[in-house]
Amino acid sequence: MLACYTDRLSVRPGESFALHATVANGPCRLEIARVGAAREIVLTMDGVEAGEYPVPPHVDRDGCNWPVALEVKVGEDWKSGYYDICLTDIAGQKTHHFVCVRPTVGTTGSKAVMVLSTNTYHSYNWWGGANAYSNVTGLMNGTVPFAQAMDEAIGVLSTQRPFVQMIIAPPENPPRLVNMRKREFKEKPWAADPKFMREHSVSPYDGSAGFLHKWEHAFVAWAETEGYALDFVTDYDLDVDQSILESYESAYFVGHSEYWSGNERAQVERFVDAGGNVAILSGNTCFWKVRWEDDGRTYVCHKWKGFEAEDVPADQATHLWSHSAFGAPEAELTGLSFNFGGYHRLGMCVSRGQGGFTVYNDRHWALEGSDLFYGDVLGGDIPLIGYESDGCLFEFGKDGLPRAIPTLGVPANLEIIALAPVAFGEDAETGYAAMIPPEKLDVIAEVTYGDSSPASQQRVLRGHTMITSFKRGKGEVFNSGTTEWAHGLAAKDPFVAAITRNVLHKFGVTRRAEG
After folding, report:
1. Which residues contact 181 (CB under 8 A, 6 or more apart)?
2. Which of 94, 371, 488, 496 is the most exposed place for a label (fewest CB within 10 A)?
């Protein structure tokens, strides 16, 4: 076996991190490279030795505890960014891990910071057994039925273990989590690319997190190619360093920033209220409340079991941010919620949807110079909507434009720019086998509408996603509503690019040549 992990995921230039590894065919070659618009190798080393160690029981919860194979000092000239760590053994087998390099203390390279969604990486990581969703190993090897596997999800996860490689380092151009075409007449529904999943033994959780060849990578590649400079931090950095955003004018959450700790959210809220700007180019944002322990070695994410899994005060529990026990629905910060959103062109979730947003408020600042007008469809060819999307309740005003209904934290001053239908899951009465079954629909209905009746559950299934913005305190929040926004940039869509440039410029980010 060849596998590795680091003692931490975030470092600054001049600091060191420990690389832990197990190697059956050593020694290994180490390569570390910054990944952005290009892959820039910063360190290579031959002859890296490590022993071969067993996988301990309950490694998903307790970690590997393998000895340190190598201490790596981060170069003073390493730019802030995402750094891929690759070990190659003498047989040519490779394994990957990563670290995020923050700016040097007291400096920033940019007025903008990108927050890597590493909490989501941890929630989906099932290396050694289970993740926050299920007993994935048992599910994948066929020894545990689906329902039982879901019950065997774990809420305490160790960060001291490798990542599943399809999460952290899939092959280039992995299939997106969307059906690239509409379902034809009476065609059996499908989700993404079943052939690829079979050929690569992909679990249902591997495509939903990670940097390489996914949403965050696509955004960073576009931004750096365009000449925009970003600094990088992780979710955990926002949890433990409560002043980290003070040096920036704007912060960016891209891809699938699903899990937020209390400290992280509190810092982002202070940042916006004090005049900072937040761009959420993502979906399913800040949906779950999580907690960190043991100086970052333990990640607590009980999801649906949050109030029964452990005896802690309510404010320390982990569950939906929108749960009434917290009194802090995520829409107060994000403007939108997955409770009102869902999926598009996956299985029977809007299986013949247009794949894009219908424009309504064409006079919004984000659409300036975009050549988009009322009734136009944005992103239908990409498609720009697919996997998880956020939304809100709305109604049409006398001016013919949609207006947000302030429910479950949705701000009354939310401006809706464009929208599209999505589904929280598949309706049980479609006549087709479920591929995207709604999870805990009764709980979502109770949290969202105050009762878990069949009528309320059916209401949850019918959602909408939208592109929005609103002002909060002295700052502003822009929310694309969809995980797939970065794929519009990767596709070189001129409309998506124009809107993204407007957001960056509005929030104080200029190209290198312009600065």
Report:
1. none
2. 371
Burial of 514 (0-12, 13-18, 19+ CB in 10 A): exposed
Using a 10 angstrom Cβ sphere, with 0-12 exposed, 13-18 middle and 19 or more buried, the burial of residue 308 is: exposed
* Per-residue confidence in pLDDT tens, the chain, 515 aa: 999 999 999 999 999 999 999 999 989 999 999 999 999 999 999 999 999 999 999 999 999 999 999 999 999 999 999 999 999 999 999 999 999 999 987 676 789 999 999 999 999 999 999 999 999 999 999 999 999 999 999 999 999 999 999 999 999 999 999 999 999 999 999 999 999 999 999 999 999 999 999 999 999 999 999 999 999 999 999 999 999 999 999 999 998 999 999 999 999 999 999 999 999 999 999 999 999 999 999 999 999 999 999 999 988 999 999 999 999 999 999 999 999 999 999 999 999 999 999 999 999 999 999 999 999 999 999 999 999 999 999 999 999 999 999 999 999 999 999 999 999 999 989 999 999 989 999 999 999 999 999 999 999 999 999 999 999 999 999 999 999 999 999 999 999 999 999 999 999 998 875 54
Characterize the bridge pairing of strands 94-101 and 10-11: parallel
The strand pair at 68-73 and 16-23 is best described as antiparallel
On whether residue 270 sits in a domain, the answer given is no
pTM to 2 decimals? 0.96
Selection from 12, 53, 255 nearest residue 160 by Cα: 53
Q: Which domain holds residue 28?
A: 2-107
351 contacts 345 by C-beta, under 8 angstroms: yes
Q: Is residue 179 part of a domain?
A: no
Counted domains in the chain: 2
Give a yes or no: residue 11 inside a domain.
yes
CA atoms within 13 Å, Cβ hemisphere of 103: 19
Radius of gyration of the chain (CA): 22
Task: Output the domain CATH number for residue 78.
Answer: 2.60.40.1930
Q: Which of 107, 136, 171 is the last residue of a domain?
A: 107
Structure tokens at 68: 């340190």
- Say how many Å lie between the first and final Cα of the chain, rounded: 49
Q: Which of 107, 122, 142 is the last residue of a domain?
A: 107
Is residue 41 in some structural domain? yes
Distance CA 500, CA 489 (A): 9
β-bridge partners, 311: none
Q: CA-CA distance, 63 to 160, in Å (whole number)?
A: 5
